[in-house]
Amino acid sequence: xxxxxxxxxxxxxxxxxxxxxxxxxxxxxxxxxxxxxxxxxxxxxxxxxxxxxxxxxxxxxxxxxxxxxxxxxxxxxxxxxxxxxxxxxxxxxxxxxxxxxxxxxxxxxxxxxxxxxxxxxxxxxxxxxxxxxxxxxxxxxxxxxxxxxxxxxxxxxxxxxxxxxxxxxxxxxxxxxxxxxxxxxxxxxxxxxxxxxxxxxxxxxxxxxxxxxxxxxxxxxxxxxxxxxxxxxxxxxxxxxxxxxxxxxxxxxxxxxxxxxxxxxxxxxxxxxxxxxxxxxxxxxxxxx
Length: 289
Ligand code: CCH
What we know:
This protein is about 45% helix and about 5% strand. By secondary structure, the protein is mainly alpha-helical. α3 (about 40-50) crosses α11 (about 250-270). Ligand 1 binds next to α3, α7 and β1.
């Protein structure tokens, strides 16, 4: 096709499903990374792209994919996300019509669904911006802090207490890496499957300070192989947040429903969509028939 024809190409649902399928098959193929999946780090990329949103100024958020550039890529909170961005590069090369900012969010959607989590409806419409749209450092949460900090950060994005707790269950996935955040270890025994184990462990395990030279983090008494960050523990020491942890620990279905809704909201923060909400796409997972 010549340049003019490429320009008028309007992708439809089927085209986005093809991108979904490509990401899903790369996830399955590249199973020698970390705990056996790029899924968790893809979820973290989509979250850090979105979580810079500031509702007062309308700046930040997933529209723009400004983490392609320093200084944002060099912000301490984004350490290690290069692995996720590079994982998606061949997908962008194969489907050049998708914006990098839509692709990073779609990567998060695919990862959640392929790791047996809930369906996350998706709307395209993000456009890539230049480095002048990079957000200032300090918009993402600092794991060494407590409940006041969590509220400052998540209220700034427009979330409430229940939504803070629903989002935090993402830590069922993946792990901390000493060469990225300084923290060490996974939160659950199944870091590549979406479950409500994070909430169960927060409530049912006994957590002690880990004895080591690294940053302050908790270690479970039973196996000494799991971890919680100070911000994770804030969800059960705060009287208003804890009842939500209890509800999600008891009822995985309720959490799946709320997790899907809150991720959808996170991923859409600050995006000037032209597609209506009714036109959100629901992708078929590779394991559904
Ligand atoms: Fe997180 N997260 N996160 N997190 N996070 C880390 C890893 C993951 C905080 C700190 C950290 C969310 C909320 C918070 C994921 C998803 C979400 C790490 C380790 C730190 C530190 C990074 C490393 O060393 O590789 C703090 C503080 C908050 C405050 O609320 C939210 C919300 C989400 C998604 C909805 C995922 C997934 C990971 C694992 C990444 C991996 O590479 O395994």
